[in-house]
Amino acid sequence: MCCLSGVAHQSLRKSSSFGQNILCRSADSYSLKLHLSPKVESALRKAIYQDDVEGLGRLASPLNWGRPSWSASHLLVEVNDGNPKKLRFWARALSAHNDPYVRRYAPILFLNLWRDDRERSKRVLTALANDQHWLVREVAHGVWGELLKLHFKEISQMFRKWNNHPSANLRRCVVHAVRDAGNLRKKEWAETLVHLLEPLLCDKTNYVRKNLGPYAIGDGLLRCYPALAIKHLRRWAQRTDEATRWNVAMSFASYGGNKNWRIGLSILTQLATDERRYVWRSVASAMLYLARRHPEVRSTLNNWLSDSKRAKAAEIALRYLRT
User: Which string of b and e fits 52-73 if b means at least 16 CB within 10 Å?
Assistant: First the structure.
């Protein structure tokens, strides 16, 4: 039961926080500690100064996802800062590179090029957000999240088209970016963020939904805008679409769900009567998550065992709770 194994991308969130620091500081300061050996850092600087794309690729492609690779991205921005010509050279070279472990270093450069070369930056960043390799997409989606924060009106209008795009990669980009923008807790953005996600509630594509319910809604909106999120979750729970109901249930298998577990319990109690396996298994997942943190939820599950409409969800959650 994949959704009982934990919330999607838990480790990815931890490693990407360092990258968000780079994205936020890239245009301002370079005090961020680099997690590279002095030898590797020196060699990377030399390759960047000399416009040695293949040399940088040999050094940077093996770097692990997380602090080491984000440090290399930071160096690219730092060394080329204030030199649009150099930034454009590296952006072109890296975005067209055959190796995705080298191509992943391209997106951050377009964050710095956006102001002066918006149309080309938009075109290439869209291609990178739809890249065949997940690692390139992950970095590009993070950059789009930063652009949403910097140019909210413009990018949110563009995302209204993407949330109905044929590509699941671009639909997932919207989800990822909305979660990032929500972290700023700007009240004037809240309803727009909800409306960007709402068309995706019925999307059953794994890549989209696993980043939507537990991540963008639960770890995003429900954490940052709890009253607004709960209002909409109650409304969405009234829908009959099973994918929407899956997202509502799984939003409580999250940090935000944990903070609002009592309200979550009432919504999950309602959803638990849904006879469709797709829905009641998601309820079991959320109840398991909450029961591990709140003994009262375990008591509710035990009560559900004598309720024929909710017994299946209770049995699964309790089975995993005992392991």
Answer: ebeebbebbbebebbbbbbbbb
In a domain, 62, yes or no: yes
**Rg of the chain's alpha carbons, rounded to an integer?**
22
Per-residue CA distances from 93 to 54, 71, 99, 130, 156 (Å): 10, 19, 11, 18, 29
Please answer whether residues 95 and 124 qualify as being in contact, where contact means their C-beta atoms are separated by less than 8 angstroms. yes
Helix/strand/coil for 31: coil
DSSP secondary structure, 49-116, as one string: HTT-HHHHHHHHTTSPTTHHHHHHHHHHHHHHTT-HHHHHHHHHHHHT-S-HHHHTTSHHHHHHHTTT
Name the pLDDT band for 27 (thresholds 50, 70, 90). very low
Distance CA 258, CA 212 (A): 17
- 96 sits in the region (left: phi over 0; alpha: psi -120 to 50; else beta) called alpha
Residue 106 lies in a domain: yes
What's the total number of domains in the chain?
A: 1
Domain hosting residue 74, numbered range: 11-150
**CA–CA gap between residue 225 and residue 197 (Å, rounded):** 14
Distance CA 206, CA 212 (A): 10
Kindly tell me the burial class for residue 46, based on how many C-beta atoms sit within 10 Å of its own C-beta (0-12, 13-18, 19 or more): middle
- Backbone phi, then psi, for 200, in 5-degree steps? -90, -5
Mean pLDDT score of the chain, rounded to an integer?
Answer: 91
- The reply to whether 260 falls in a domain is no
pTM, rounded to two decimals: 0.88
pLDDT > 60? residue 1: no
* Domain annotation covers residue 81: yes
CB burial of residue 1 (10 Å; 0-12, 13-18, 19+)? exposed
